[in-house]
Amino acid sequence: MVAEYWLWAGWIAKVMFYLATAISIGGAFSYLLFFKYQILNKILIKYMFIGASLGILSSIAGFLIQIGSFANSGWLGIFDATFFNILLHTSVGTVQVLRVLCFIAITALLTWKYYKQPAKPSYILRLALAICFLTLLFTFSQMGHVTNLSIFAQGLIILHVGAMSLWMGALFPLWQLSRRIQGISLKDSMHLFGKIAAFIVAILVACGATVAYLLLKDWNTLLTTPYGHGFIIKLVLVSSILLLAAFNKWYFTPRLQYSQFARHLSYAILFEMMLGLSILLVTGYITSVIGIE
């Protein structure tokens, strides 16, 4: 099998993992934030369940794709026992096992919560989910080019991915909220999210900019390498989604007591979701297909 095919397959698996992480973390955040709206509770639990299931599949797929790329014997290479054992005992194997176990645990916790009588999540459930989420975020600092950076930079990666997950993963719940809740309740909820999102975005941008500086090192890398060109595209997309989010916050939110603005906001959030997916696609592409020199 052509080596490039494994790169593309790895890219898809990585983007799916990004999505799974964002859905799980952002979904849990939204569930706690909007718990008082019973109409959303089971929708958000199902949303998180989809994210956790996607996480299991993408983690397993990512590991098998790496085995196949090493075996270099076609698609059946993913079942190569020799390379399976070799990779399983490396940091790559450890990370993938951790990811699968975390998502299995999240799935089990969500299943238990779904069939339980509606009640605010207990502190034990919150703690268990928090441990799973923190472990997932930690794995981002243990793979790829960031492993060559300092512990400080790896910590920034964890914060950056965590902030990204909170924001991106909350977009679908916000979209559902804008379609199911009306009037002052919607306005107050969006205003509350906007205040929290301001801190999330600040962390996201500050950590992302610092890590980018550490990785790119100079303007020449940014302007003359494929990784740099991909990063510029990502910057354009990030700038676009930030501008759209700011517009939603300052224009739509103060007017949400009027139904037509709630409808317009739902369309804007839908577009924001598409921009978010584009950012994840570009991020996965430059980190798995291109790579930094």
From TrEMBL:
Localization annotation: Cell inner membrane; Cell membrane
Domain Copper resistance protein D: 190-284
UniProt keyword annotations, A-Z: Cell inner membrane, Cell membrane, Copper, Membrane, Transmembrane, Transmembrane helix
Record bears the keyword Hydrolase: no
Main localisation: membrane
Record carries keyword rRNA processing: no
Membrane topology: Multi-pass membrane protein
UniProt record, GO biological process: copper ion transport; response to copper ion
A UniProt-annotated Pfam family: CopD
Transmembrane segments: 15-35, 47-67, 87-112, 124-145, 151-175, 196-215, 227-247, 267-292
GO cellular component, one term: plasma membrane
Job of this protein: Involved in copper resistance.
Family: Belongs to the CopD family.
Annotated protein name in UniProt: Copper resistance protein D
Lineage of producing organism: Bacteria, Pseudomonadati, Pseudomonadota, Gammaproteobacteria, Moraxellales
